[in-house]
Design brief:
With about 100 residues, this protein is mainly alpha-helical. It is globular, with a radius of gyration of 15 Å.
């Protein structure tokens, strides 16, 4: 389960980095900046987007019967936080 959480965090980091810094998403950023400044800020923020993507992806793996399984929920939440922290750390290191 820990390995899955690590892969999960790395995948979220990759998607977050491409969406926030990839030139392919520049038109999306420009369009959102004109029409929805809040969403433009969310999509441009590596920590914000990383957290929400990771949380959404983690929730894909939770079944209603597992909500009572605290270790399972804690690991998935940790993966969400880990994806966000990893995105922040790499962003800070690369000075993007």
């Amino acid at each position: 389960m820990i390995e899955a959480a690590a892969v999960h965090a790395l995948a979220v980091f990759g998607v977050t980095f491409v969406v926030t810094r990839g030139s392919i998403f520049e038109p999306v950023h420009e369009w959102l900046t004109l029409r929805q400044p809040f969403l433009a800020e969310l999509v441009g923020c590596h920590v914000c987007l990383g957290f929400w993507l990771a949380l959404a992806a983690a929730l894909q793996h939770v079944r209603p019967t597992q909500l009572d399984d605290l270790p399972h929920v804690a690991i998935l939440t940790g993966a969400a936080l880990g994806g966000s922290v990893l995105a922040w750390a790499v962003h800070a290191r690369l000075n993007c």
